[in-house]
């Protein structure tokens, strides 16, 4: 056996090993490739996963970003909405006092100016106040600023600003008002359209808030509501209407008709039912109660500020039910003055004038005219008696500026004097003039000019808004006027007003203009310097005649002579009865100490002989007189039977009268004949002596009359007086005639009528309302009880037996009342029945007329 080829085997083995190695390497390479491919695949998968994750992450990021952005937008929208809501709430919320003043100063300041194009403005000039009282001198009000600052300091002491309530107009409302306010003032109406929302309403709102704070009320005596009006008092309006037209019976016809009546009827003596009568053919037409919107106001300020105070005490409640023309409530409750009339409800409302406001269009009374014309001057020598126009243009403009300023201030001055107030405002929409007069020295009128464009800083903050802003200064001035009005209520000023009017002069009529070439140089008309037409002349009002001496000769029929009044003793009128034997108890508890001229104290039960000595030489009453006045004001009314005793000599004192003891002491101490004639004579003498005492306005006013409580001093006699102006005296005369016709019913179901009294000196009740005639009546009673008033609330007076009993009695005596309503029906406790009042609309029917048919027709109506 051959030996193996080891080399071949070796080589074969080597080749085999090499092949195996190669195969292994190939297998390894394949495995590596496979591994690489797997790794590549895994890498691809990982990359894909990464991409997917990245895509998911990106999508998630985008989603989160979108969500975040949406959330941010929503939050931004919410924030913006919240901001808008807060801004709206801030704009619409009520403001504090300082915020309100700042808002008015910012929004309202300098938004109005006078129209310079004369084609767009009203024509005419500022007329001279012919026939009105004017001051002798006009002087700057030098201490105006210090007085104003004192008022504001007092306000801040009782109205702390650290915790102010939000009670005033919102910014949104002010901005809305600003849009509709005219920016170019062309007429006086435009001036009112600006002053009402920008001045009057804001001041009214502030004062309304202040009057609700006890601390402020105590500091400034704000015991009243404040109201602003722009219409006539109904009495003045009615008198003006009568002056314009005579659509009803004239005073001459009424006088002739009344003079044709029997003497007993004229003198208010006992009525004889079977006595023939000649009746007036017509009665005076009762005017409308309120000022008509179409009535042109004459002789009154453009805006009047009043204080209203409602009294709810029982003693004064009775007075509210006294005899008045109940066809309307107080004239001051008319709603013609926007939102500035907030007349309170209550039993009795007292009114007191605070100040008048005169509006002038700024194109007639520009800032330049005010600054040039307002200076210290004597009106008679510097204005009224100037009858030549200078040839120099500057001098001519100066003269016209002084005339316009004098005419405007004198016009407002006359309202202030007649109204018994010491303060007034002239407003043009661009500037304000504050006026002041001391009623004790009425010859001098003081002024202070406020021009917001030059006198008020543009930026005012904090407390300075009260001191320096336009509205803040007007507010301080109103507080000053309100405080003065409160003081005048404590110290009545009727005698002071009368003395001031007697002392002052009347602006005379314009004379014939000197039109010579030397006096009037040729010139073209200019809106800033119109032709000057000053008046000339000067006259004083003559003083009233001196009061005759008042005697008390009990044996003489003419012991007390009236001052031109209506009452006279007729031939068949019984003489006032002699004093009876009075054995009643002493009335010392009811007597009132009064201060005599020598300063000693006397008793009011000692008669009226000391009326002269009881009045102080000063126009203002002393404290003793004030206390006596306060006491007598609350005397109860005399009973109807007591007052009836003054008209019938067979009846005398009524022991049931609450003032019976006072009457006894009065008659015992004076020992005089006393009846209707003596009562009216003494009362008229008393009213001639003073109208500050013993006559008290009750705050009740109707279409033709106002109601007073009247006390005959020292006697205890307390009655009701229905007063009216001179032009409406026919209505009182006619009503007096109706009362006389119903004489048998007086003191039973109608008040007792004592007759008419003429005031030798008028009672200045309101601006343009001078009470000159009084109809004296007994107290009527209280308002109807609720159970009766509710039955006849719809003028169904026949539905109540109590009312029908009284009304039927009036009808049975031949009088058709024609105005039977709840306000004209009272309940008198002493009579125990319903009392009918207000017969100015009544008519006398024929006595042979079928009364049942008459009542049936009335019921049908």
UniProtKB/TrEMBL annotation:
<protein>
    <recommendedName>
        <fullName>Protein kinase domain-containing protein</fullName>
    </recommendedName>
</protein>
<feature type="compositionally biased region" description="Basic and acidic residues">
    <location>
        <begin position="621"/>
        <end position="630"/>
    </location>
</feature>
<feature type="compositionally biased region" description="Low complexity">
    <location>
        <begin position="311"/>
        <end position="343"/>
    </location>
</feature>
<feature type="compositionally biased region" description="Polar residues">
    <location>
        <begin position="278"/>
        <end position="298"/>
    </location>
</feature>
<feature type="compositionally biased region" description="Pro residues">
    <location>
        <begin position="519"/>
        <end position="534"/>
    </location>
</feature>
<feature type="compositionally biased region" description="Basic and acidic residues">
    <location>
        <begin position="20"/>
        <end position="41"/>
    </location>
</feature>
<feature type="region of interest" description="Disordered">
    <location>
        <begin position="20"/>
        <end position="91"/>
    </location>
</feature>
<feature type="region of interest" description="Disordered">
    <location>
        <begin position="262"/>
        <end position="347"/>
    </location>
</feature>
<feature type="compositionally biased region" description="Low complexity">
    <location>
        <begin position="595"/>
        <end position="618"/>
    </location>
</feature>
<feature type="region of interest" description="Disordered">
    <location>
        <begin position="508"/>
        <end position="630"/>
    </location>
</feature>
<feature type="compositionally biased region" description="Polar residues">
    <location>
        <begin position="262"/>
        <end position="272"/>
    </location>
</feature>
<feature type="compositionally biased region" description="Basic and acidic residues">
    <location>
        <begin position="48"/>
        <end position="91"/>
    </location>
</feature>
<dbReference type="InterPro" id="IPR011009">
    <property type="entry name" value="Kinase-like_dom_sf"/>
</dbReference>
